[in-house]
Amino acid sequence: MKRKAKLIIASMLMTGILIFTGCSKSDKSRGISNRDSYTENKRASSNYNNSTDGAALDKEVKENNSTATDSQKVNQDTVQRKIITTLYRVIETKDFDYAMEVINERTVAVGGYIQDSNIKGSGVVKNNKKDLRSGELVVRIPADKVNEFIKDVDSVGTIISSKQDGEDITFQYYDTETRVKTLKIQEERLLSLLEKTDNLQNILDLEKRLSDIRIEIESLTTTLKKYDNLVSLATVNITIREVEEEQKIEEKSETFIGSVANSFTGSVKSLISFLKTLVILIAAILPFALVMLVIAIPAIVIYNKGKKKKENETLQK
At what angle do helices 96-109 and 146-154 cross, to 10 degrees? Predict the structure, then answer.
């Protein structure tokens, strides 16, 4: 009986030892596994950090910028110029309705549109006086059709003033375009790195940089679209004024008779001007002359009396 009890106790001890040994091995294996996982993550993080090293990435960006800039320099002579065209017209017309009709029709015909329109006045006659109208329009016309359009506009009345400006934005346009290309290369590089890493912190950092780059790309792309719109469509600023009579702008050629007449007229005007000046001068001197005369007359009378008296005394002697 005692022997049987000893066997049971020994069996229990062996079972306990085996269980303890198994747990120890499991913990050791788990520790090794965790250490290996940590080492792998550290290696991945190290690879990511090495691949995205600031200096290396900056070097790559500079190389991309240099390549794009060199390409731009090569094509500078043959590149398409980007010109923003703006025209101004001030026109007077007796037929305001006709002028507006021509502008509207020609705008549609050449594929443009009226961006802004401001009409003042009613054109109604009140108390024998017409409420004359005026209009200010901003019209967008395809750049290759603007000369054709402006000829029709000029025909609706008398041109009071005209002006044309051309702003060259070639450098700004292609510089912006190059920056977009460079940013897209950076975007592709970051996407490639994002696919290679499983580290959460690295993923968050990459996604933040991608977000910043995409925002900048969107902003620059919007600027390019604005440039394209300004270049492809010329801006025509038109002021139309309704008048009772249009101004007559004539070029006069002077003839010989005209020259003689102008010379005579000029001489007469000069003589009249001299006489006016003389009269003004006399009027200014006259008060002083009267005062001097009042003083001089008594003095002359006294002098003459004294002289006459002296002569009489001389004769009596």
Answer: 170
